[in-house]
Amino acid sequence: MAGDKRKILLVDDEPGMLEPIAEYLSCELDQHKILTANDGQEALDILAQEKIELVVSDIKMPRVSGLQLLSEIQVKYTQTSVILMSAYSNISIRDELKKNNFLHFIQKPFLVEDLKEQINAHFNKMDEGFQGTLKNIQLNDIIQMCCLSIISMAIRVWQGSQSGVIYIKNGDIIHATFGETVGEEAFYQIVTWERGQFETLGDVTAPCVSINREWQFLLMEAARMVDEKALQKEKDDNITTPDVNVAETVNSTKDKDIEIVSESLQKRSKVLIVDDSAMMCKILTQLITEDKTIEVVGTAQNGQEALKNISALRPDLITLDVNMPVMDGSTALKHIMIKSPCPVVIVSNISRESQINIIDFLRLGAVDFIGKPKKSKDMAAQKKRMIDCIKNSSRACVNHYRRGIAAKPLQEKSEQTTAIAGKKIKRDSSSILVVVNSGVGGYGELLKVIPMFSDTMNAAVIALQSMPAEFLVPFTKYLNERSTARVLPLHREGQSDKSPSSGKIPAWKLNKGCCYMGTHDLVVQDGAIKIGPTNDTYYIGLKNNHQESGFDHFLQSVADTFKGVIVTVLLSGADVGNLKGLQRIKEKNGIIISQKPATCMIPEPLQKAKKAGLIAFEDDPISIVKRILNS
């Protein structure tokens, strides 16, 4: 079809309007073929016989109106774009237009040159980017790349006379059609084909949303179906083989099953270490293999070498450095998440140059971050943190993670956070407190939700995340630059890498429109962050308390002291302690909300709280924040 002209269909019941426009466009757009129809029904008849790229239609017409024609096109001819025009612009028509998706609306009368420019702009946009042929690539690879890139696209797939369309919106698979079949069933029928052809149709609006599952689940389920088909085919082939000793095969299978069960009981976490320093690889290997449940199955000195080793070594977890030659950590991580999803822990020194890189890694799906080990008196503590991090992260369900669009720094942060309509914002103490608790696998969720909190919200937020103490300030600064709410770090004045507990003990006034960021290390090592009223004003102070779980003690002190509304939000891997703190919150009529476990990298702590009957409701993190802000 490379030499064919693109076809444009003009639809209008007024010959005095239709014929001059068609004649003008035929002369001006000689690279396109102009067809005409006198009403919507005639247009549908033409669409059934011709491949039409663009329809330009009047709204008010006999038999089939322009809006009815638009609805039919969106269902049956998804690759066709629509421009609507009308001399009428009353309230009812404007309301109808809002409900529909189309390319443009033109108010009659109009200059035909303007219509020509809109048509040219539309086709120029469709022609942007690369063109070519992809070979030896699977359909699920294309879908993965679209979803991970968070783009909107429709993909038409065909095999002989069979064809279907998959719709992706902002990185989510929302709809699929295969003949008369729609939704998940249509998606699975298309993706499980062994071979076929496809073309991308650009950002085509789906006629409806028929799929609500995560794209990772859909692709994994499709892969399972393909495997089952292959196994069934193998079984069918074996049935026709006369020389097979059935009894011997059954006994052999039983023996293998016993071996597999035995191996699983003794299974160790297999780790692949990726660092351009051979010495650091050796140090990390010695450090983490002191725990007998961890096995280092290989090392790599750059991302490219790591990608070659993954399929052969099949690690349960990868430790990844940031800066490496040949292929850096960022590029390697993207390839890992697309081709071989596996829990990744970033192991890197924190510097001004690496801070943003580390945060981007966490946004792209890295489970956790930990600093490289240093020679110091607390080597035993470093080793424990490293081993705990690897053991916890190796359990992560990385397929549950949905990458978010990176929030951009606010250009006018200072003005937004200090004034509204020319008046300085008064920082009043809050009567509503939101406690956000996040753990392993929760960095990415925090990066999505904290920028959603508003400077004008009638609540204060305390967010806790398990992270190295030295990472707290740069992480908080990153969030503060992207949030209208003020984001402040809960740390001791003069805190340093060598002495995270040194300095004066500060206190912060608990103001609405502010988010206070703390670490679990701070809570556990220095005791609970206690909140106490002073002249009807609440303050956050760091107090020593080594007698019980820091988070439990913190929540109990919040429940006993804070007299306003308390909302607790639990994200992936959140430390729930022994549940005493959450139980106290519920006793004081506080609300406990959980991220849906099915969307968490580490769901077990949240399932523990749910099993105890402490969760009021579950939702995805963005919907949780929207609900809090709206209420």
**Largest beta sheet: what is the strand line-up?**
20-22-19-18-25-26-27
- Secondary structure class reads alpha/beta
Q: Distance between termini?
A: 55 Å
The Rg value, from CA coordinates, equals 30 Å
Broad shape: globular
Q: Hey, roughly how much beta strand do the residues contain?
A: 15-25%
Count of beta strands:
27
User: What is the average per-residue confidence, as pLDDT, rounded to a whole number?
Assistant: 79
**Number of helical regions:** 22
- Low-confidence spans: 240-250, 256-266, 414-425, 494-503
Main sheet attributes: strand count, strand direction, barrel closure: 7 strands, parallel
Please estimate the helix content: 25-40%
Features:
about 625 residues; seven-stranded parallel beta sheet
Set out the fold topology.
Blueprint: E1 6-11, H1 15-28, E2 32-37, H2 40-49, E3 54-58, H3 66-76, E4 81-86, H4 91-99, E5 104-107, H5 112-126, H6 139-148, E6 153-159, E7 162-169, E8 172-178, E9 181-182, H7 184-191, E10 197-200, H8 215-239, H9 246-265, E11 269-274, H10 278-288, E12 294-300, H11 303-313, E13 317-320, H12 329-339, E14 344-347, H13 352-364, E15 368-370, H14 379-393, H15 413-418, E16 419-420, E17 423-424, E18 432-438, H16 443-449, E19 460-465, H17 472-480, E20 486-489, E21 507-509, E22 514-519, H18 520-526, E23 529-534, E24 537-542, H19 550-561, E25 565-570, H20 580-587, E26 591-595, H21 604-611, E27 617-619, H22 621-630
Parallel strand pairs: 1-2, 1-3, 3-4, 4-5, 11-12, 11-13, 13-14, 14-15, 18-19, 18-25, 19-22, 20-22, 25-26, 26-27
Antiparallel strand pairs: 6-7, 6-10, 7-8, 8-9, 16-17, 21-24, 23-24
